[in-house]
Known about the structure:
22% of the residues lie in helices and 54% in strands. The chain is α+β, with helices and mostly antiparallel strands. The chain has 2 domains: 12-98, no CATH class; 106-314, Beta Barrel (Porin). It has a 12-stranded antiparallel barrel.
Amino acid sequence: MSSCRWPNRGPLWLIAPATLLAAAPAAAELPPSVEAMIREAGKADQATLIAVVRMAKLTNPDEVEAIEALGARYLAEIKQKSEAAQMAAKQAEIERLSSFGVFEGWRGQGELGFGVATGNSDQVSGLLGLKLSREGLKARHNFSVALDYQETDRSVSRERYTINYGLNYLLRDGLYVATLVGWERDRFAGYARRFTESVGLGYRVISKPSMTLDIDGGPALRQTLFTDGTSDDDIGARGSLAYRWTIKPGMTLSEDASAVSSGGNTTLISTSALTAKLTSAISARISFNLQTETDPLPGRVSTDTATRASIAYSF
């Protein structure tokens, strides 16, 4: 939470209000109308007070010092009220998060995408996804399920299932322990099933009201059962990032990416999306998904991409 700060440039009263307050003439020397105008502005916000004081100085050049002193006094009061409100809001949020039961505080979003193409080839594709999240006082839970399916000329050409659960535990501001357990099935990539477990450290690199960026990484384990019946267990490393930018109210740009390297192969998954709210609960989304295997199985291509339009429902 940010607090009010003095502007970097401006009149002297904005830079050293306490000094001016001590040295300036008493506010009682001001015309009653000017004093009343500044006093009312002091009940509003910092921007309003600054504008009113600037106008008062222009229209009353002989009372500049007294105006600056009175403005500094009310600006200090605004700052104190703002800091008190922020502390109260922070304490209320701590109490709210602390009161959550096991099944309280969860938020969710369901996503449904569907596409049909006809012509030289007939293609039908669908995307079904569910995300659940819960942010507590110290722990942040993220759970997701996704089904990605496609038919080309009545033959299945894409079929991928994923389930992921992540738990982040806050150590101090911005720094957290990041854990993940994931399962996936993609027989067109040659995997009957693939489990991934990882633990590491994460950090919130950007933390603004309109933008966040989380990055984490650490060692990982991976167990793979291939479609030909063979299996492989590897130790490697995993890293991921989650970026959110609220371009304007109701419109968000996001990027979720992860990389897992083990057994001489690196899997890179990236999903970029632009989401726009249609109602308080329903949003329209355009997304681009990329998955790359640096060492694909024989007969498989290394990169799959998909661009989709979908509808998301938040609850």
